[in-house]
Specification:
Elements lengths: L1 E10 L2 E11 L4 E5 L6 H9 L6 E6 L2 E2 L4 H6 L1 E4 L11 H11 L4 H14 L15 H13 L5 E5 L7 H15 L3 E5 L3 H7 L2 E6 L2 E6 L1 H9 L3 E7 L5 H5 L5 E7 L6 E8 L7 H12 L3 E6 L4 H10 L13
Length: 324
Amino acid sequence: MITVTSLSKYYGHQPAVDDISFEVPKGQILGLLGPNGAGKSTTMKMLTGYLAPTSGNITVAGHDVLTDSLAVRRSIGYLPENNPLYDDMNVLAHLQFVVRMREIPVARVRDRLRSVIDVCGLEDVLEKNTGQLSRGYRQRLGLAQAIVHDPPVLILDEPTSGLDPNQIGEIRQLIKTLGSEKTLILSTHILPEVQSTCDRILIMNQGKLVADGSPAELAARAGGEEIIRVQLKGQPPGCREKLLTIPVVARVEVAESGEAGVTSLLITGQDGAEGDLRELVYEVIRAENWPLLELYRQHLSLEDIFKQLTLGDAVDDEQVRRVV
């Protein structure tokens, strides 16, 4: 549905986006992540035709952004980060205005308005001026104007920025509903939102694409070593040294437990070691008769992966190559 090839955008001699390529198939929800200044918003603006690239090619739904810009814009619903709305219009008038701008056939207008009002939950605020809406309802209206022409592609830049937890949950559910029917690109700094919503993640840093894959694939690529967390009651003497005797254990570190009278250990396996480290650790604990409170594999979070790839915490070139 979207193809980006060798895309770059320069401001003077400064690259905002530096030679990135990727494809987004029909029906996928793609999360676009990166620190401030990574090039995410610039990339989205080029996808929508709002900005012209310095070099490279973009096609959306089979149309070239440069040579067939109007067809691309008809194929896209776009919610920019600042969500510009006409504050002197009420909600219904605003949607009717967008309908006319989008040149939706008269025979479809009523059905499209009913559909977006229902999907976006705007029934109770139709007569309110947009300037009187809460931030959550403004985002709902922004999404409604983005989907009123029923585009196959949605591009949402920070759709939950500035919302409270309840509003974030509402918008997140709405995005999931829309993503079941459309190709969707979502940019956000709220990492749990990406993990719970997106099928695939792209991470940008300094204008470059540094990772591409599902959350599980990125965790597998960035993790490398297996880490087991163990909590023991009391302070069994020599437990760290005993666990280090396991042949596939690389190191054992004492961690903060947050509880009095509890010993918490992080046990790291050797990279590429075979077998389940949990079984080997448990065998030692059982043989020593240590009182076990917890034993589980510690998974690398999306936040950990994000920090590694954008701050350079001990990640080699192989780890930041595209996973897929």
